[in-house]
Structures are given as structure tokens and as C-alpha cells.
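Record 1 of the preview.
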Amino acid sequence: MHIDIHDQTQSVTADTVDSIQQLLLFAAKEEQIPREAEISVNFVDDTDIQALNRNYRQLDRPTDVLSFALQDAVDEEMTVNDEADIPLALGDIVISVDTAKRQANEYEHSIKRELCFLALHGFLHLLGYDHMNEEDEQRMNNRQNALLGTFGIER
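->
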């Protein structure tokens, strides 16, 4: 899977970017995502994510992560294009570094762990996971925890 990372804040360390890339590649393999798939991960500040949240979700406040899926989910499973020559664009993940720092402090873990968690959370949204009801939330939380634990990122 190709991961295009943009850090508009210029504050995310190379080590953290590498960990996020490795985690997302691991998760893609575990979720059996085709190698030709593409995603982008964008690090922004609270002002930028608030504008996106207002424009796309009609919520005029910052949030930690937003996902913009380009593939349709049907019955909780992503529809995968079988044409091998065409890259599968899964979508974009946008993470607020400002909010991630606050949450890392609140949860008493590193910013690196928080950014990895948020990137994985956004990635799972691109694959059709959601948390709109208790059952879906439990399914998504279980998958997040399993992937983070197997990869070696604990709370």
C-alpha cells in the first residue's frame, strides 16, 4: 500500500511518521488490502481540522481525526476494485496534531502512541468500520486494540 504523508504543522518527528507508516502497512496486510491501494495521511492544526469538521460534518469545533473514504462500504465491507493496473484510492485521513497532543497528555501516553492510534482509527474508517451504534463501536474498538497490540503499541 502506498501512503502519502503531509505534515502541514512540520511538528511530527520522522520516527513517528515511520511508525505510522509501518502500523498502517501492517494493518493493511492484516485487513487483506491490495498492495496497489493508496491513502493519504495529513497532519494539521486545530484551526484547519475545525474548518473541515464544520464544512463536512456541520460541527464547528476541532476534532482529533477525520476520514474521507473514496470507496463505498456495503454491509460493513469495503468494495475492492479487482483491476490490478489501477491503484485503489481508499481515501484521506486528517489528524489534528494540536488535539492529539492534548489527548496524549490526558491519557498519559506519548504523542507518538496517540498519533499512531488516530492514524489507525482513521484507516479503519476508510475500510468501512464505524462507531455509530454500540455493536459497531465494539467491533471497531476490538479491531483497533487487536491491531495495536499485535503491532506492539500498548496504552
